[in-house]
Design goal:
Blueprint (H helix, E strand, L loop, with lengths): L2 H13 L3 H21 L4 H18 L9 H22 L21 H18 L2 H10 L7 H8 L6 H14 L1 H4 L8
Helix pairs in contact: 1-2, 2-3, 2-4, 3-4, 4-5, 6-8
């Protein structure tokens, strides 16, 4: 069975109240939720809290999903947003001694740093790449390989002409920029 067709069928069945379909969705996408959460350096109960919230949001929105086959991207975006909320909440609950000038001794709290931003960008890029047609995704991945893949080799692998590399790359990048996960990095987009 085609994977996107299978996801569409599972979403429809789960939205209709099929508990087996719901459990299959949870089983299938729990590793994705955990992967995104670990990218934000969340561990243990924080990951569990994020996962519970993601599944709650999915239950609340399952019938309203406009494009069920885009469920993996919806899960990535929702998990990323929940991870950011979790990180912000942990910063607000830092131990504080009003009599001390600095933080409480012996307590270390990771500040959100460049790693979190890179993780969010990486997850958004993966989601955007997943939405591209196979040929455009393959071209972009070949173009960013290190060491660079010669154009002749790209043409051989993808069965395209040298003159179509530039236009295909331009269309792929335009599509990637329009992806909600990528445009949402600025904080203006939402799902």
């Amino acid at each position: 069975m085609n994977d996107s067709f299978e996801v569409t069928a599972l979403v429809a069945a789960a939205a209709a109240g099929d508990e087996v379909a719901w459990q299959q969705l949870v089983d299938r996408y729990t590793p994705l939720v955990a992967s995104v959460a670990h990218g934000f350096r969340l561990r243990g109960t924080d990951v569990d809290d994020v996962a519970q919230t993601v599944w709650l949001r999915l239950v609340e929105n399952l019938r309203q999903l406009r494009e069920p086959r885009a469920l993996p991207m919806w899960i990535i975006t929702t998990t990323r947003n929940e991870c950011l909320r979790q990180v912000r909440a942990s910063l607000r609950t830092r131990p504080f001694d009003p009599l001390a000038e600095g933080p409480v001794a012996g307590v270390t709290v990771d500040e959100p740093d460049e790693h979190l931003i890179r993780a969010a960008r990486h997850q958004a890029l993966l989601a955007g790449l997943a939405e591209l047609p196979e040929r455009q995704r393959a071209l972009l991945l070949l173009l960013i390989e290190d060491p660079p893949v010669p154009y002749a080799e790209i043409c051989r692998r993808l069965h395209i002409k040298v003159g179509s590399i530039g236009p295909t790359r331009a269309r792929a990048l335009e599509r990637l920029r329009a992806c909600p996960e990528i445009s949402g990095l600025s904080g203006t987009g939402s799902r």
